[in-house]
Amino acid sequence: MKFLHLIWRNLLRRKIRTTFTALSMFVAFVLFGVLMAIRIALTMGVDVAGADRMLVFHKTSIIQPLPVSYAERIRATDGVADVTSATWFGGIYQDPANFFAQLAVDPDGFLRMYPEFAVADDQKKAWFEDRTGALVGRATLNRFNWKVGDRVPLQGTIWRLPGGEPWTFTIRGVYDASIKGADDTQFLFSKAYLAEVARKLFGPGSFGDATVGWYIIRIAEPERAAQIAKTIDTQFENSQAETKTNTEKAFAQSFANQVGDIGAIMTAIAAAVFFTIVLVAGNTMAQSIRERVGELAVLKTLGFTDALVLVLVLAESMMLAVGGGGTGLLAGWLLIWRGDPTGGLLPGFFITPRDLALGVALMLSLGLVAGTMPALQAMRLRIADALRRN
User: Fold this and answer.
1) CA–CA distance, 166 with 152 (Å, rounded to integer)
2) What pTM was estimated for this model as a whole?
3) How does pLDDT run across 341-352, given as a tens digit for each residue?
4) CA 283/CA 17 separation, integer angstroms
């Protein structure tokens, strides 16, 4: 600590150069934080998907429905502890750009399957009792400035009402995600309401009345997931609606992969940025050492050992990295802390403690790598040569 003032004065020797180098690190770490938050947002659900939950889809495509009669056969499968279903509604609220997921579900079964969705008891009761009621995630509620009791019109795109009339739902409750990263953007309503309207539109046993989009099952022993999936799919082989069963985590990962390997893309961008910053910081330190050759010779003449000179130069590099990178990481965290900047397209926009720790590690590594060569140069400097050169 007694050399802290000396290190600080050396950094201030060229204020403009030091400032611009620190600013480049600042920008790099702001970018790092935002990239990591985008990665989390685009892979939302993968890390929080329940290990004991599986999804049963139509084997051909996710958009193909499954018969409601499958529910009891799936429930009777060895290892299955609970079953519920969901159906994609695909409505439009005011403008197609206002996208959010709308699902017709069994209210009690769905909340039982997803205990991480926290709902007040009175709101849960009100939703259960109102067949046209809706339960809305906090993010979507805030996005459109809705409140409990509001009536929300949705223009059906799959199930169109006569005359083009919109479906109208009353918001009976709001749910919060008790786990960071869980989806709090969904709009949920009773599948009984969908079935009732589908019967009027297309007759009993029609699409929406006798079908569901997919089944969600809870298994008692997650280590038996592969065996249970095979058992379920075997039951429906050679039927008109063959199934494909997979874990929820695998489904979320495959869904995220449709836009590419998000992790690899973000890592490649961050690596390019940090490689450039290492070159910039390394050049700054090397130039600084070249300008102080005579002073380093004097320090060694006064008794500073080679090892101490090495440590002082490395400390200078580390201080520059921590100053620029640390404020950049803090600024990035504050920016992300304000939440989704897109107005609802990236609801899971946050940075994890693991990524923050990675940022700190990168910061220290940056200072170490950028300062190593100049520090070795300073350590190997011979007094006579330095004074002669000066």
Assistant:
1) 9
2) 0.68
3) 766 666 677 888
4) 11
